[in-house]
Every structure is written in structure tokens, then in C-alpha cells.
Amino acid sequence: MANTSLADIIYTDAFASYYKRASTTKSALITSGIVTMDERIAAAAAACPTGARLVNLPYWEDLAGDPEPLIDGQSLGTSKIDLNNDVTIVMRNGKGWAISDRAIERAKSDPIRSIADQLVRYWNRETQKDLFALLKGVFASNLANNDGDHVLDISGLSGDAAVLNKNSIIMASQLLGDHKDELTAIAMHSMAESVLNQAENSATSYRPSTTPGELAQYNGKSIIMDDMCGYNPTTGVAEIYLFGRGAVALNPVPTEHETEADRDKAAGINKLYSRRGNILHVRGVKWVDGDGYSAEVPTRSDLESAAHHLRVWEPKDVRVVKLICKVA
Fold first, then answer.
1. What structural domains does the chain harbor?
2. pLDDT mean over 138-167
């Protein structure tokens, strides 16, 4: 390892192959099924000019209207089929790190696997931060524009009626009506997960993970435990999200020099740069620039703003709901 540089490691087929594979197998968002790639988004993004900020996702509205009786000699009328537009914004970010030659020499593990795993963990964490910022904005918009029809807030009730339990999860799922069975995963703070684990009926409802990478289950729903989910230890109020499979699209966008290395030979310092472009999109909730907004890349504060989100699909087709409750 004495003469190995970062460039020797990352500019290899082995590194590229392992990094690509690990990016999907080590993400709880992808493992749970709530985040999937969308071929429609991939095709739309590919058709956009290089460096485009926004990607348009046109879709046909559901067919509507009552059928007409078939009467001999009478023609059927026609109703308009409406074409609408969903919109998503492209996020492009990068980060650089430095490591000395001696640090590389001291690393006894496989350097390709070690560095790739570090990058994957970093970007997975950042993607989850982006997702929860996005959800904050989406549900702020839902409260402002849709009367909060995808939010169940029981935190102000008394006693057990305000607490996270099987019944509150069932009633939050009911926000999707007859589409509630499509909700397959729950994201929550670790304190909320502990409450479910300790519940009286946990023996039949809660199944903990038994191997690394496996997700715990509650009543058949995968649990994504993340302390970025809202929880106030003073009030005991937690914010919990229930997702359907594929509720969120995550599509990579081609980026120049995605992984790059440089070296200060005199100082013996290796520099690693990682750049990433992607589309993270709650399906059916379009991005809205708003008056005067033209930032090339949205910040997390932008993602959290209700002003940048507007639901365009039918309510039941947007497969994510929010439960606000007490866990202590």
C-alpha cells in the first residue's frame, strides 16, 4: 500500500462496480421500497438540455364521467381527456475530502471497498436529509392548500387517544381510504420505534430486525428508523410518515467527474471529490418555483418551504401520509 494513491483506487472498474452496487443495497430508503427509480422520469430527464433545472412530467388525468346507455341510432357523446403536468427539480451537490498517504498506508482493509462504503454512507445520509426536508415542504403545502387531508394530528387529544399505537397507525392509513393497503413502510424517530417495540401487543405486531441491513416490521410494514424524523422530547410529540411502495422517485442525473481524485505530491495529501446529481420527487406533488425564484440548485430550506410544492395528482394516488402523535 505504500505507493498507492486515491487515484489508483477510484479510477478502476472494481471501484465503479462496487460503488454502484453498494449505493442501492445499503440504502434503507431503497431496501424498504418507498424510493424507486422511475423510468418515466429517467426518459424525461434524458430529453432535457444538459444542466436543466426543471424536468416536466406530463401525465393524463383519469377518465371521468358516467357511461351513457347504448340506444340504437343515438351517437355517444365525448368528454375531453385532460393532459396535466407534474414538475420536479434537479439537485446537484458535491463534497471534497483530504487524506494523507500515511493514512492510506495504515488502512489494512480493502481500500476499494472501504472508500466506496464511506461514499455510499455519506450520500445515503444526505439523501435522507433531503427527503425529510422535502417531506416537510410537501406536508406544509398539504396543510396550506389541501386542508391537511393527508395529515392526522392527534397530539392534542387526551390520554391514549393521543398516543402512537396500532389504532393511530390504522387511522392514519385511513387517510388514503380504500388505497390504504398500499402503505407498506413507516419512517419514525428511534424513540417512536422504541414505543412500538415495547407495546403490549408487540409479540404479534412488531418483528425486530435480526440481521444487519434487515428492516424491522410493524404489522407487515417496514420500519425506517431515522432521528431526522421529528420528535420533541419535551412534549413527547413525534412526526411519523407512512409510505406506499414507490411513493418517492430517486433518479440519478449524469454528472461530470462524479468521483475524482487529486494529489499534492509535496505534502503527501490525497484529495477526493464526489459530485452527485439526482431527482428526488414525491410522485404527484410538483415543484413550483414561485415569484422571483431562480436558484440553480435548491437548498434544504427551499425544499422545506410550502411555497415550492403543489399536489397535482388525485389525493389517493399520492402514497404518503403523516401522523403527528405522542410517544411518551
1. 6-64+83-326 (3.90.1690)
2. 95
